[in-house]
Design brief:
Length: 104
Amino acid sequence: MSTLDDDMQDLESAEDFLDYFAVAYERSVVQVNRLHILQRFHDYMQRVALPDDEDGQRAAYREALTAAYQDFVLSDAITEKVFKVFQAAQPRKVTVALTDMRRF
């Protein structure tokens, strides 16, 4: 009998994780956002204290994966800014007084 840890070692793709944890998904959402979903899932799991029992752990993983997937059903990768490349400094709004412009 395999354990949750053993099973998770065999999961490779976002679809594998979603299927394993029985999270319903639209293939088109996953195809566009698979890496973002997995990274968000990882980020959510970093904040969770896993229960000691395997059933509780399985529930925690499923909840985090569902939330990660839903983030990209309701939004997109650019808005969610999961990866550092999307977190680059946002354009700043600069205000220049008219009196400063007249000096040139």
